[in-house]
Structure prediction request, 285 residues.
Amino acid sequence: SCVLDINRLLPWEYQYVFTILIFLLNFKRTGYIPACIAFVLVSTYFYGGACKLNEDFVRTVWNILILKFFLKIPVHVITQSWVHYSGYLLGVIELLAGVGLLFRKTQVWSAIVLITMHIFILLLFSPFGYRGYRVLWPWNTSMIVFLYVIFLRGKERVLAVRPLLQGMNGLVLVFWGFLPALSFIGYWDYNLSSALFAANIPKMTICVADTVACKPLQRFFNRNSKVGACRGQAKADIQAWAIAETGVSAYPQVWVYKRIQEKLEKQYPSALFTFTYFNHYPKNK
Prediction:
């Protein structure tokens, strides 16, 4: 399904594929399976936390989604420097908890911290919070189960290195240990690097001069103000559009956005689309 539509290759889908692969590679040596899955979890939290250490995450996810929308914190409190910059702690805590899973003395507490994080995310996207991303419920629930089974209930408290060096298990070490680091310099895809909610991923804004010429798309476009990229024309953010139509985000890579651009221009040539690519939200957004 991901080959037919790259937008289906979301971070949890990628993780599930490798989890199944780990079972297939070790069906005759099942003792290696927990260590390999544990390494995937460590990588997910380490790189996931590192990807959140950016200003876009603090301004959009921390300030707007968590503080303003979910916790109902007044704006005059959110704008205080110590409140704003405390948002960086979310990425730091996730990163350190991921590292903590590696060591005997910190594994249990790290797992408890991460389970608490997942419970908060479930509440954040529950009927009491932001309802538009319910697809996150199964993934966060499965992560809680993995953390409990491997790090809290499991007898093996230390991540073993040997299983990762046995046969084809080296793929897990390469694809989860080394390749995600390349995403920070643009040589590996964000969805393959645990960059969920990183916020500083590539984005695309679509402006259209004539919405009548693309009637099936009208409900995804909003009339823009006279400032900004669209300057009074109808506007759509590709990620907001994807979530509204499919329930999940678009694959955050420029080469995918260019494919979308080509298809829209070919299908609705008289709509006069304008496409803007960027990595960071404007500070006044």
About this structure: The chain is about 50% helix and 5% strand.
